[in-house]
Amino acid sequence: TVPDWMQTMGSVFSVVLILPSWGSAINMLLTMKGEWQQVASSPLIKFMILASTFYMFSTLEGPIQAIKSVNALAHFTDWIVGHVHDGVLGWVAFMIMAALFHMAPRVFKREIYSKSLMNTQFWIQTLGVVLYFTSMWIAGITQGMMWRAHDEFGNLAYSFIDTVTVLHPYYTIRAVGGTLYLVGMFLFAYNMYKTMTSSRRVEESELQNASPMGA
After folding, report:
1. Separation of alpha carbons 41 and 115, rounded Å
2. How confident is the model at residue 103 (pLDDT cuts 50, 70, 90)?
3. Is Glycosyltransferase given among the entry's keywords (predicted)?
4. pTM exceeding the 0.85 threshold for the entire prediction
5. Is the separation of the CB atoms in 75 and 143 below 8 Å?
6. What domains are defined for the chain?
């Protein structure tokens, strides 16, 4: 087995990882200093800012889970599922979609088909991912507490099926959140398809400015 001192060192170094992770995210957010009004008008910037925010959430959760007392509660529970998905869906996917919305006009020489569709996608997916990871956070904590509960004789207080029954409402909320996020992905795919095939062509000079946007 891994010696206890080595586990402790691993926990310490994991917690220290918060510093470079948050440093890069704060650098990204401070780039907007004096230009925050653009968040209201640019759905692309909305995606980037929210992606950076989710990056901060995700890189805070990970190191905290490396603390042994926290890991003892959270390990193998749905908390981990929530952690992974707020990183993948909230951070990585949002940043990739922002990058693709920025690149599409430059690659296809056409403006983005619909800015309003981008906004709709953003809010639907934001609601979806928030429902997804918060339901899994609550489910994970509930799971961990039930698994650790004992009666006066030292026996487990709950069977496995007891935990599954209690968590069913949270799984339903997760399904709703995941469905909303999937709907947003279909809107994204449709917007990109129409950008490639039906949107107004733009001149090279227009591409030197911010990504051209449609209606």
Report:
1. 10
2. very high
3. no
4. yes
5. no
6. 4-208 (1.20.210.10)
